[in-house]
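User: I'm putting together a teaching handout on how multi-component assemblies are represented. Below are the sequence lines for each component of a complex, exactly as they appear in our records. Could you produce the 3D structure of the whole assembly as structure tokens, so the students can see both representations side by side? Please keep the chain order the same as the input.
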Amino acid sequence: MKSNSGYNLMELMVCIAARQLEDGKTAVIGTGMPLAAAMLAQKTAAPSLVILFEAGGVAPKLQRLPISVADSNTQTDGLLHTSMDVIFEACQRGTIDYTFLGGAQIDMYGNINSTMIGTDYNHPKVRLPGSGGANDLASLCWKTLTITPHDKRRFVGKLDFLTTPGYLTGPGARERAGLPEGSGPFKVISTLALMGYDPDSKRMRVESLHPGVTRDQVIENTGFEMLFVDPLPETPEPADNELRILREEVDPLGLVIGKSGQ
Amino acid sequence: MNEQVQSLTPQGELFCSPDVEEARSFFREKPRTMTNKLMSVSEAVSRFVHDGDYIASGGFGGVRIASAVLHEIVRQSKKDLGLSGHTATHDFQILAAGRCFNRCDIAYIVGLEMRGLSPNGRRYMESGAVKMTEWSNATLAWRYKAASMGIPFLPARVVLGTEVMKYSAAKTIECPFTGQKLLAVPALYPDVGIIHVHRADIYGNCQLDGITIADYDVGRSSKRVIITAEHLVDTDEIRKEPIKTLLPFWLVDAVCHVRYGSYPGNMPYEYFSDEEHLAEWIQAEQDPKTFQEFLDKYIYGVNDFAEYLELKGGESRMAELHELEPLRRIGEVPVPAKGGNR
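Assistant: Of course. Below is the structure of the complete assembly, with chains in the same order as your input.
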């Protein structure tokens, strides 16, 4: 998975994801690539980004990548050790800017499935974990980012199960359902491109193609009609200092960036 | 998905009654005398966990879980339990191994966070043997909280518009003040709550260090509470830092002294998770026959949790996991219980 510029796709995705997080904001983050991105952001352009964990850890000095959103690494030198209800209530109150999720399937409105693969809820082909905190975070945080490999099994026309709300069925649907006004999907970082959402139709659109990726590649690997901004720029490559910090300080054991694309 | 999703009536089964009057009657009769509740895990499970009961497991799946109680539930072949699948990872894995539950409120099951999915947990849930109702981490946490507050439901702004709502047992309501559409999540009163803590006295007064996850409300909503503790201390130790007290004695039914009681899970400040053994669990689960041998060795073939710890390397392995613990305390030893004082 190494590109000829000397970084792999995981490293590319984490670096791009990190750049989406603005300094001076709050974020509830899950383990894996989202957390690697948030840690990298803290060590580069967003030093005062506050990272919270849904289990109750707030603003730890992250030394190692946590394995669980509750493990000791989410609590080291923290500002606050609290409980899950307190974290979700902070989201519901409107004080949390970002959340950052993964998921098995995503559709053109940024809705996510992490519950099951198959057609019959009672007899799933594959039972997946379910919402966890994903539904809650994507309902309540102001901006939702998603990071996922890009293929037709994941970017689907119809989800097998709608676990986590994106823009649901389009403009106004979140508000009609009772979800907080002005919240919703923000960015999707995939192995092929950086995507955002068209402000009018609320549909996913490519904002930049990763180096060496073509528009056709994105179309071929997407199960719905993808929109593109025009003109369509190339995603800036990871800078040397981003890669160095990511490899030496964020994930020296290669827990996230050592894994190849699935 | 389409607009239909939003208008569909939730069709999941409500496994526990949110009847607050019934709960108040139960709590009215619950003994409040400060008596010695110290007992073995085996006795606690035989006395307080009955076939058909609804169980809430504290901690966060692989962090600060009451592993010894979970093993004992499997060893005593408890059946037809209900399970709150709240942040359930290794705790779910253990109870699924024993096929102990037949209904499950689901926020997070089968998954093991960054470790992957539980193959046996998947087989169990895909077999149709378990009735499922969908929730989320926040809604299950708030269901415990509503019960702790003694009210039949809490309003919330999550789950709306999704298929989690369709397969949940929540309802939508209109705010009487603003007209806002809200989700109503029903109070959840588990029959038994099991929580692992850092220290407890023999009466049930118990304290935690670090994040509390949902345990403040698990301990208050559950009709019966089993506490396992790393350290048994005198009541005076509890009184030194009362802000750390999770539950006072009258909420607790059983206290079990279980050193390394969260193993192979992480116990913040004490020891990190045993990732090698957790990987061994997943590996063994690949094949049902291999998994049966694994369970015969580690759960059915031992008398208690201490024998399981010995099989996994005993004190020397625990010392290694202590070294791996990022929050470990250097040279600080809790004052052990002398007994008697309050």
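A couple of points students might notice: Confidence is low (pLDDT under 50) at residues 1-6 of chain B. Residues 137-149 of chain B form the longest helix (13 residues).
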